[in-house]
Amino acid sequence: xxxxxxxxxxxxKYTDLSRIHPDYTNKMNKAxxxxxxxxxAFMLVFPVWKKWIKNVIPHIKGNTILEISFGNGYLxxxxxxxxxxxxxxxxxxxMVEVTRKKMKDKGLDIHxxxxxxxxxxxxxxxxxxxxxxxAFTGYPDGNKALGEINRVLKPGGRLLLxxxxxxxxxNVIGFAIVRLWEKFGDIIKDxxxxxxxxxxxxxxxxxxxxxxxxxxxxxx
Length: 220
Ligand SMILES: C[S@@+](CC[C@H](N)C(=O)[O-])C[C@H]1O[C@@H](n2cnc3c(N)ncnc32)[C@H](O)[C@@H]1O
Fold this sequence. Notes:
- The chain is of the alpha/beta class.
- The protein is built from 7 helices and 7 strands, in the order ααβαβαββαβααββ.
- It has a 7-stranded mixed β-sheet, sandwiched between helices.
- It is globular.
- The N and C termini lie far apart (41 Å).
- The relative contact order is 0.16.
- The site of S-adenosylmethionine has 20 residues, from helix 1.
């Protein structure tokens, strides 16, 4: 039997928020300006990314759907249809442009906006499903982001979230992947604790990256 090498529980440390630059989102946004051009190529050389994020698709429910931080719109292109009312919001203008073109080329009528997860331009209780993939670790204030997500979800609505967090079994490889992601500038958060704080009822599954990539299905 293969023995898993585990990290000690005290080594699991979330990002120290006091060290985050006050203008973090705008600093990261500069990188996304050029990433918008190469994001498709990145997904080609790293196809497992697509596999991870597509895990949300079977769990989408209801007619009104919001995808927050859709990036180059790959995932949206996989689930969107004109039978649903679909909205998307992303902070990066270039990502919005790329996705708008992608949706138009596919004949899909989607409402795409530039905006910040911390201030969603929608009324309370608007959406049946909210999708958020590989973006939550890029938000400086997880509490503010989840507060807004909660506000615009309908009661009984669901948040489908995929992102990095430490592997539940604390294996060394998954742990190293999360630490590497933090070195790239992302903010590693205790997603379970945040969802609990915001009164979500949730199920969790590890979907890849040696347990470091997680899918949450969280009900309001
Ligand atoms: C790593 S990409 C993920 C894109 C896509 N969801 C995926 O799974 O490939 C992160 C995205 O989050 C967006 N983003 C970053 N901060 C944001 C914020 N505060 N509000 C909304 N979107 C934000 C970026 O512009 C970028 O498109």
